[in-house]
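Protocol step 4 of 5: obtain the predicted structure for the target chain.
Materials: sequence only (see below). No template structures provided, no constraints applied. The aim of this step is simply to have a reference model before the mutagenesis design in step 5. Sequence pasted as it appears in the construct record:
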Amino acid sequence: MDPIPTRRFDPLSAVRSTAAGGLDLFLTGTVFQDIIFTGLPHAPQPGTEIWSDGMGSCPGGVANQAIAASRLGLRTGLAAVFGDDGYGDYNWKILAGQEHVDLSLSRRVPGWHSPVTVSLSVEKDRSMVTHGHPAPVSTTELVGCPPPALAAVAELGEELEPWALEAHKNGVRLFGDVGWDPTGVWAPARLDNLQHFHAFMPNQREAMAFTGRDDPWSALYSLADKVPVAVVTLGPQGSMAVDSETGEEEWVPSLPVRAYDPTGAGDCFGAAFIVGCLAGWPLGDRLRFANLCAALAVQEVGGSLAAPGWGDLADWWQRANARKERQGSQWLRRYGFLAEIVRDVPPGAQRRASATIAHLSDA
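Step 4 output (structure tokens):
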């Protein structure tokens, strides 16, 4: 494994607005200890045992997006609760020491054990088993007055957390996150809160459930009436978006790759899209970049382990241009905006990590 760089490589710093003394991206949420099994022949059956081809251990939950954003150069801060157990020690060490995520608003809580998720990757999808207890400290208590930042990711709930409302008032661009609603209610009041957001990025199932539409295009246009930048991810079909501020509408197909593990791909997509927004890129380039980062992520053991850094992106660009059948192709020209960005990526720029609890043996 290459040594972890002591500083992030950030080729977009010159084109990104700055928040004096602040962060590029601020996140809150729950950090899980993810244990991921890949290469399973089928889902486990009652009373049987199956063996996987590989496994990985890494910080999960909100850590997926925090690590993905930091590897792409964003000054990233995270407010989360960590247990004082071995998993908490490991996750804190990886986030702060290896991945350069600012944890100054996070807290260690004695006696609270870290939530754990076991992810089983089967047939290009995943199933998960999770155990944990509610955090003894609320996000509002952790954050207090939100830090200066260019952007923040906030949960689109029926009521927004006080820190998110305060951040919006202070000019922070909020990017909406949402989880699946097992009750099936999908309260309309949550959509009303999009007035506080700059962008909302659900997947197609979430978008259709929220809006009551029966196809993702109709759902996208319905969301675009409520938020400046509406994005709907389509899995293998790519992603589409409407930017009402610029008048752009785009659909960008996914890259043709062999998906190994989809864990955390949506978080990786979101982090990369935010990078493009902060860099002021056209909507199509934002979607292409996000699709590329997600495509690189699903080819490796999932979650935060698989999120690409600028070193991985430079490697991909060089490999793509080395293939004679793609030289000068329309497909490659769509990613031409990367040429100047990755041209000066140093050999030591950050790449995917292989650190796991099992060290290197199962990465």
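Step 4 remarks: Residues 312-347 form one domain. Residues 359-363 have pLDDT under 50 and may be disordered.
Proceed to step 5.
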